[in-house]
Design goal:
The structure is a single chain. This protein has 13 helices and 8 strands. It is of the alpha/beta class. Helix 7 links the parallel strand 5 and strand 6. Helix 11 packs antiparallel against helix 12. The longest helix has 29 residues. The N terminus is likely disordered. The structure holds NADPH dihydro-nicotinamide-adenine-dinucleotide phosphate. NADPH dihydro-nicotinamide-adenine-dinucleotide phosphate binds next to helix 2 and helix 5.
């Protein structure tokens, strides 16, 4: 379908997707499934082939993609890339009066900076983040978080919800979705670093990843209830270590360091974490629980 043959038939239920990496393609695909007139654009041409076969409109330029929809969803690698697209004069001009939902991941500061730029150029702006893989988009498993003007969010919610899953508006502070995203990805990547490191140590001891897997899942399953319990501790400032004091945690971390280094495996991450625990103990909080380090780091 060509852009120009359709351009005059603007429907209210239309959407433009800028950025066709795995996530952008999944978003556009879900919009198509939802029956929306979906216009797509990507810096590198050719990534829209399957989408076009399914009825998407391929725009020859970002400005033309922007001009045909009231709602523009951006999903590229980071805000440098989003800026490279949105802040080109022809695109900025075409965006005036339209709404951008930026589902690109980056920092809260970049989200706030983009909101300032948007306000200066008459662009209505919502920020958001996607907390699940591209394969979940369009299914009940997808998780989206949003922030920015609530009225604007409500206005576009019917289209946004075509992406499936759950959508949570976290507040008017435009940086809030990115703040959640960073905190949640901090958990994810730190856990993944621990997992990769654990596999290296296990392998050095003759244990395969497959042999460890069921036990690794068991360890991961311990975490969700602990997250809930410790959230109460951190929010109230009481860090009870009755069941597992930080002195015991530090000792267990030292074993991991020694076992790793005995095999010549870098234990730098665990050394840093053990260092935090030792500092908490040195400050007289050895009977507190491990999450007391939150207060140490926050200082
Ligand atoms: P990538 O993060 O690899 O981003 C690829 C997209 O960014 C392509 O459209 C690429 O265009 C574009 N891009 C990169 N640099 C530029 C630039 N300078 N100017 C214009 N466009 C540029 O792929 P994803 O689609 O997977 O991710 C998109 C966003 O979604 C990211 O912020 C990611 O963190 C987030 N996300 C992704 C998930 C996933 O499962 N994939 C899960 C949750 C969030 P080109 O094709 O021309 O290179």
């Amino acid at each position: 379908m060509s852009l120009h043959s359709e351009q005059s038939h603007q429907l209210p239920s239309s959407v433009t997707v800028l950025g066709l990496g795995p996530m952008g393609r999944a978003l556009a695909s879900a919009f198509l499934d939802g029956g929306l007139r979906t216009t797509v654009w990507n810096r590198t041409p050719g990534r829209d082939r399957e989408l076009v076969e399914r009825g998407a409109v391929s725009a020859p330029s970002a400005e033309e993609a922007v001009a045909v929809s009231e709602l523009i969803v951006v999903c590229v690698v980071n805000y440098d890339a989003a800026d490279a697209i949105l802040r080109r004069e022809a695109v900025t001009t075409a965006l005036k009066g339209r709404t951008v939902v930026n589902l690109t991941a980056d920092t809260p500061g970049r989200a706030r900076d983009t909101a300032t730029w948007a306000a200066e150029h008459g662009v209505r702006y919502l920020d958001g983040a996607i907390m699940t893989p591209a394969t979940t988009i369009g299914t009940p498993a997808a998780v989206f978080i949003h922030s920015g003007p609530e009225e604007l969010y409500r206005e576009h919610r019917p289209v946004i919800e075509k992406l499936g899953g759950t959508h949570t508006h976290l507040g008017e502070d435009i940086g809030r979705a990115a703040a959640y995203d960073i905190a949640l990805l901090d958990i994810f990547w730190t856990a993944m670093a621990g997992y990769a490191h654990a596999l290296a140590v296990a392998k050095a001891e003759g244990v395969t990843a497959g042999e460890l897997a069921p036990f690794a899942q068991g360890i991961a399953a311990i975490l969700p209830p602990l997250f809930e319990e410790f959230a109460g501790d951190v929010d109230s400032g009481s860090y009870s270590g009755e069941i597992n004091p930080i002195t015991s945690a530090a000792s267990s971390m030292a074993h991991i360091i020694h076992a790793s280094e005995a095999h010549g495996i870098d234990a730098g991450v665990m050394r840093v974490v053990e260092g935090w625990a030792r500092r908490v103990i040195a400050r007289g909080h050895g009977t507190d629980g491990f999450v007391r380090v939150t207060e140490l780091l926050g200082r």
